[in-house]
Design a protein that fits this description.
Elements lengths: L1 H6 L7 E2 L1 H8 L3 H10 L3 E4 L2 E5 H12 L2
Antiparallel strand pairs: 1-3, 2-3
Helix pairs in contact: 2-3
Length: about 70
């Protein structure tokens, strides 16, 4: 699983795992997960938890006024 994530080009996938969300937002694990849940970016597929990059981008754009 990790090898697949390492081979992907940044920005290619819409859904991110928690480690990718942490790197994308430059937050720790707990704060990244809390942010993702608050903005509705959490996507559960079976037991996996992924985060919607589009919703994270929209939230950050609104927050910064871009």
């Amino acid at each position: 699983m990790r090898a697949r994530a390492m081979n992907m080009v940044a920005g290619e996938s819409r859904l991110m795992d928690t480690e990718e969300l942490r790197a994308y937002t430059n937050l720790g694990r707990n704060n990244a997960m809390k942010l993702g849940e608050e903005i509705g970016a959490k996507v559960k597929i079976g037991k996996r938890v992924l985060w919607d990059k589009v919703k994270v981008d929209q939230y950050l754009n609104n927050l910064t006024g871009v």
